[in-house]
Specification:
This protein is of the alpha+beta class and 280 residues long. It has 2 domains: 102 residues, no CATH class; 139 residues, no CATH class. It has 11 helices and 4 strands. It has a 4-stranded antiparallel beta sheet. β1 and β2 form a beta hairpin. The two termini are 45 Å apart. 26% of the residues are buried.
Length: 280
């Protein structure tokens, strides 16, 4: 094999980067035919056994195989400018990671591939987590703003006392969380009494609650709803409708979504990074 292929797998010099493809949507993928050649499998039938093991590992990890391995037919060149169709597989970065974990470990390029895809997969995870953190920060700030506006609309409807507003808020949770009160949600998600539910929601759950708050506020004002009981009923009805929409779309019910890191810690990290950037 060409010694140029056995360079340290970092950056654009990596042989795995050189065979990477990108579709029209900007998503990256690798062809199993290219991959087999890079890993030194002269007989593609032997590499098909590696793919089979990788698919099993994918399934066992709880991932959908079809999200990472796509069986296709592609054309390859043969002698004198001719072409013929062959079976191939288009693979995601995660699929490639599983491939090198199940390939022949005695091959030096396989060891290099294990290092490369482990590092790249981790970078992608970090990038995705950074994106999720940014979404949470934005949605949590929006939630604060719209909770104030919701409180104003509730007050105009007749929800004046703090105890009454707590009951009003609970009706929204009951509707959205299938009958669970704020206290029930705390217990279900194993949060401490001092911990805010909103501060431990991921972006998906925050978005659902933000929609609940904005739609309830709008409905209270638009229909000029008056009376505590009517306001409570409205909040619950909005929550129920949003829950029904989530169900129809095949989404995860909010009470079943995992808790997220305390958003106050994320805010603290962001402030620290900003301070360091200013110092630099």
């Amino acid at each position: 094999m060409d010694n140029n292929i056995l360079k340290a797998p970092t950056g654009n010099d990596s042989p795995f980067e050189k065979i990477k493809r990108t579709n029209e949507a900007g998503n990256e993928y690798w062809s199993s035919r290219d991959f087999a050649q890079i890993l030194g499998y002269s007989d593609y039938r032997n590499f098909e056994q590696v793919i089979k093991k990788a698919k099993t590992a994918c399934f066992n990890s709880g991932q959908r195989i079809e999200d990472h391995f796509v069986d296709i037919t592609e054309m390859i060149e043969i002698g004198k400018g001719g072409q013929r169709s062959v079976n191939s597989v288009y693979m995601s970065r995660y699929a490639c990671y599983l491939i090198v974990q199940n390939a022949d470990p005695s091959k030096e390029i396989v060891a290099l591939g294990q290092t490369y895809f482990a590092l790249q997969t981790r970078k992608q995870e970090v990038s995705e987590q950074d994106t999720e953190d940014q979404r949470r920060l934005l949605l949590r700030e929006e939630m604060k703003t719209h909770n104030v506006r919701l409180a104003g609309a509730a007050k105009e409807a007749g929800v004046v006392k703090a105890t009454d507003y707590a009951i009003f808020q609970n009706h929204g949770y009951i509707g959205l969380y299938g009958g669970l009160t704020a206290q029930d949600i705390h217990r279900r998600k194993m949060l401490k009494k001092s911990q805010s539910i909103l501060d431990h929601m991921g972006s998906t759950e925050l978005a659902a609650n933000l929609f609940r708050a904005t739609q309830t506020e709008e409905k209270l004002r638009r229909e000029n709803i008056k009376g505590k009981d009517n306001a409570n009923r409205t909040h619950k009805e909005v929550g129920v409708k949003i829950r029904q929409t989530i169900k129809e779309l095949g989404g995860t019910m909010p009470e079943n979504l995992p808790i997220a890191e305390d958003i106050k810690k994320i805010e603290s990290k962001q402030k620290k990074l900003l301070k360091e950037a200013k110092q630099d």
